[in-house]
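[audit] Reproducing an earlier prediction to check determinism. Same input, same settings, fresh worker. If the tokens differ from the archived copy the diff job will pick it up downstream; this log only records the rerun itself.
[audit] input (155 residues):
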Amino acid sequence: MNGALASAASRVVSPVRDVCALYPNWHLDLATEQAYAEAADIWVFQHPFHWYSAPAMMKHWMDEVLSFGWAYGEGAKLEGKRWAHAITVGATESEYGAGSSRKYTVEEFLHPFERAAHFCGMEFLPPLLFYGSGIVDDQLVQTWSKQYQTWLLSL
């Protein structure tokens, strides 16, 4: 599903970067990543919801790229930029929230990312969530791809 969404995104926005494919050994090119991040007015992190968070590579990217003196602190370069998530969630929406098996909403699980964005002087936008992505068919892929493109163009 995430591959189809990334493909749909690449038809309406540029660049779309797959850091897992770019860095299979996890050795990030910090200068390149910071240049792309600094050039963008808005960051969209597209990923599956993995153990109530993002995949490890996204956390690794944040740990390495969001450095003192560039992302925050004196000389910070990210003030006023926007941060958003487009997330595929395997479970249904009814499985999240008070009284559900997950106890919290996906938005509540995203609070650490919201805090990171604000710490860097960025605006955190409401996420686009694709619930029930564990079982999809071609029609749903097409529907979600169009929804994603519309959302991206509205940012």
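[audit] rerun output stored. Observation attached for the diff report: Residues 41-130 form a domain with the Rossmann fold fold (CATH 3.40.50.360).
[audit] end
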